[in-house]
């Protein structure tokens, strides 16, 4: 039949339209590997390399492909999507628009299934058939790279990551900054029915997200050992997914993840910008939530702030309960230090713990590291822990933790505290209600930053350094004579330092 070439051209045009409509990444993932075997009785046969891809194309793109075909060729009424296999398909190469397209009169011959797991090869490219029709799905952004895939091939451990025995609820110290996240994790762990789904925990580095996730998983396992809980990092999720693609094993991958009672994914920000992993994650997530299975996610930012995440995923992640872990306060740091010192059975003077809680404000991981260092040092040299030895042993860490508080921050905090406008810090107004907070801010700027008096003056509406000196003196006097004023200042200082 002479229509072969025109069918070829039609398919090329349809592919062009699809690419424009769905975008480069989705096109390369799901549509580029498609090829057309022919047309028979008004039905176009489309060949895909895997069953997973067939399911995907049928659910996501079939209607559109059919409509585009009907637009191109009035003869077309339906499409059929079939899985190809190891032998070269009797079709045009998806990437080779010059090849002739055969029109077939027989149903597409579907070659026997390919082995599910070819033996791992060092090379990234999957074994293609005839080197033509199959283009490996792209792995989203550049990080999903051949090297990543290669390293993943070695990793064939259980899908759930091991839980750290130290990360339990019993060992988690609760304070204001983490009380909501802790209560939510406890509720989910002890609930018999799914309450909020997903539970989304977020907070800065080293503030206890992983600890809480593990604690939750331990608790669920303890309450009901039959519940299937999978905990893993988003990074590992991505590697598993890549490996599944690599081995054409995506159905097993899906089944594994979609048959759990509780799915916990840590550090989900890792898949930002990795579009194909996000896509898969999104579907896994939806499938579980639809079946009323519990999903728990952690991240370093709130769902709405996760850049590089697809909008629909971000909004879906925020549907349940979003609980944040705030930076630690002095009290929480001290509480954590005391708990860890007890656990280590170490005899550490309270003033050393207070000193550490005051100085190491970055995160709990560093705080713990500092404690371990001074304990180890004391054991090695056989001397008791003192404030002096602590300062000596930790001098590098302490320097790095010298918080650089800015004058802007001080002005903002003080203005908030006294309920005045930040602009009043710079204004010429002399009313007491404004002038006193301004003096407090100047005083704190002198105490908490390394700025000189003239520099501070400049930041307060170009005031003279003598004005700053006067403010510092005045605040010191008031602190000495008025305990509630002194308390206010102390509170502000702590807030700024935490
Ligand atoms: N409230 C707490 N009580 C006791 N230990 C804590 C607390 N918060 C954090 N930790 C400890 O601090 C360390 C770091 O915590 P974790 O690994 O959970 O942080 P994270 O928020 O997951 O960090 P990252 O963002 O790097 O993944 C752990 O050893 C953890 O046990």
UniProtKB/TrEMBL annotation:
Residues 106-147 are annotated as: Disordered. One of its GO terms (cellular component) is cytoplasm. PROSITE patterns: DNAA (PS01008). Residues 109-125 have a biased composition (Pro residues). Keywords: ATP-binding, Cytoplasm, DNA replication, DNA-binding, Lipid-binding, Nucleotide-binding. Oligomerizes as a right-handed, spiral filament on DNA at oriC. This is Chromosomal replication initiator protein DnaA. It comes from Azospirillum thermophilum.
């Amino acid at each position: 039949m002479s229509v072969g070439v025109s069918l070829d051209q039609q398919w090329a045009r349809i592919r062009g339209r699809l690419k424009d409509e769905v975008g480069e990444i989705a096109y390369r993932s799901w549509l580029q590997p498609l090829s057309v075997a022919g047309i028979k009785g008004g039905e176009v046969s489309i060949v895909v390399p895997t069953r997973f891809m067939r399911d995907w194309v049928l659910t996501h793109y079939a209607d559109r492909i059919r409509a585009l075909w009907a637009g191109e060729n009035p003869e077309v009424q339906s499409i059929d999507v079939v899985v190809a296999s190891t032998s070269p398909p009797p079709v045009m190469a998806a990437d080779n628009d010059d090849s002739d397209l055969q029109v077939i009169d027989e149903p597409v011959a579907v070659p026997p299934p390919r082995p599910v797991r070819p033996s791992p090869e060092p090379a990234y490219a999957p074994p293609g058939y005839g080197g033509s029709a199959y283009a490996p799905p792209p792995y989203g952004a550049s990080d999903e790279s051949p090297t990543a895939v290669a390293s993943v091939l070695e990793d064939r451990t259980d899908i759930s990551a091991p839980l750290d025995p130290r990360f339990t609820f019993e060992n988690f110290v609760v304070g204001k900054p983490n009380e909501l996240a802790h209560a939510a994790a406890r509720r989910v762990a002890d609930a018999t029915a799914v309450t909020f789904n997903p539970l989304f925990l977020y907070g800065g580095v080293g503030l206890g997200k992983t600890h809480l996730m593990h604690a939750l998983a331990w608790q669920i396992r303890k309450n009901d050992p039959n519940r299937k809980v999978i905990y893993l990092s988003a990074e590992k999720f991505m590697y598993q997914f890549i490996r599944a693609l690599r081995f054409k094993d995506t159905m097993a991958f899906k089944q594994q993840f979609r048959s759990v009672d509780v799915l916990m994914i840590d550090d989900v920000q890792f898949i930002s910008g990795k579009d194909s992993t996000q896509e898969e994650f999104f579907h896994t997530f939806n499938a579980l939530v639809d079946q009323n299975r519990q999903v728990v996610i952690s991240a370093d930012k709130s769902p709405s702030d996760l850049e590089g995440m697809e909008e629909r995923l971000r909004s879906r992640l925020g549907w349940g309960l979003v609980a944040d872990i705030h930076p630690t306060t002095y009290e929480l740091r001290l509480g954590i230090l005391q708990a860890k010192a007890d656990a280590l059975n170490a005899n550490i003077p309270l003033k050393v713990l207070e000193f550490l809680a005051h100085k190491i404000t970055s995160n709990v991981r560093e705080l713990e590291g500092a404690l371990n260092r001074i304990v180890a040092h004391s054991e090695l040299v056989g001397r008791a822990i003192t404030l002096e030895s602590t300062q000596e042993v930790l001098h590098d860490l302490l320097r790095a933790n010298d918080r650089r508080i800015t004058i802007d921050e001080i002005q903002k905090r003080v203005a908030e505290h006294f309920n005045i406008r930040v602009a009043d810090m710079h204004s010429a107004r002399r009313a007491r209600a404004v002038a006193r907070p301004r003096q407090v801010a100047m005083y704190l700027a002198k105490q908490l930053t390394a700025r000189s008096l003239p520099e501070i003056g400049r930041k307060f509406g170009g005031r003279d350094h003598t004005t700053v000196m006067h403010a510092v003196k005045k605040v010191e006097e008031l602190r000495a004579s008025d305990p509630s004023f002194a308390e206010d200042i102390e509170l502000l200082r702590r807030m700024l330092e935490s």
